[in-house]
Amino acid sequence: MRTIIFLCIIYYSSIANGQDWASQSGGFLRMGMTARSIAMGGGFTAELDKSFPVFHNPAWAAFLSKKHFGSSYSNLTLDRRLATASLSMPLPPTAGIGLSWVYGGVSDIQGRYTTGMKSMKMQTGENAFMITFSQRIISWISIGANFKYLRYDLPITEDGQDPVEGSGIGFDIGLIIGSGENKIGIMVQDISSNYQWDTNKLYTKGGPYKEEFATIYRLGSRYSNDNFLFVADMGIITDHNNYFGIIPRIGAEYEFIEQYSFRGGFGNGRMGFGFGYEYKLYRSYDSSLDYSFSLDWASQSAHTISYAFTF
Predict the structure, then answer these.
(1) pTM of the predicted protein model
(2) What is the pLDDT of residues 236-281, one digit of tens each?
(3) Lowest CB count within 10 Å: 15, 65, 72, 276, which one?
(4) Residue 4, SS3?
(5) Digit-coded pLDDT (tens) for 191-215
(6) How far, CA to CA in Å, does 94 sit from each of 53, 55, 102, 135, 164?
(7) Contact between 143 and 137 (Cβ < 8 Å)
(8) Which homologous superfamily is 2-310 in?
């Protein structure tokens, strides 16, 4: 009974906090990237995600033994979409590198004139291009960083005229501690990340404007036992002037017949579940296909499918 009460407190407190930080800039980088991570609540600070090894913690690149290519696509309500592509690889003897891209956008936005009549349709898009480097300090500790170039196009009309563009840079820093299956992860996401806008083309008194992202400090762990895997992390989100709340994330995975996995979890203000299938493309278990379904506190659903290939 106490466990149920505790879980209910976490659930409703995360909903209340989510309403505070959801409106902060860079939300597309906090939504969850891959089907496996979303199904397990997103608590992957200490867990390797084959579809996107360096997003949840860049320090993972130094522990890779093979090259990893991954892609993912999320179909969300209200004409929203989220897509990723990444390539990560070891850099012998003790380092790792990665290149990745994240895109979040909204399409079919109906424009209107001041009279209320319909004009043309528009769309918006946010992009993050990341370069990752990670280094093992000793055999069971690694540190890594993501260097991000950020761009926001708002809006883009059907004829491609008069787009407003914002761009900036940002950083992530991560640490992985542990040997074997059980590990601890530390991650600081969106250090100094921002968009810089110039609105002189739109307004008479326009000018440069800097839009800062909120920073998230996370601590997480993973634990495996036989065919079960448990992941969890806790994050604090702040803009260093205001505290927006705590983000708890927890999930589990059960593997059977070596190729199939069932998953479930809660995190980022939504519940998720999904499944995965590993198969042979060129070598044994070198490919995996994952699916997840998630539902947030506002009953907004998302379907995500991801593919990973190791070589």
Answers:
(1) 0.88
(2) 999 888 888 899 999 999 998 889 999 999 998 899 999 999 999 9
(3) 65
(4) helix
(5) 999 999 887 766 666 678 889 999 9
(6) 16, 19, 27, 6, 43
(7) yes
(8) Outer membrane protein transport protein (OMPP1/FadL/TodX) (2.40.160.60)
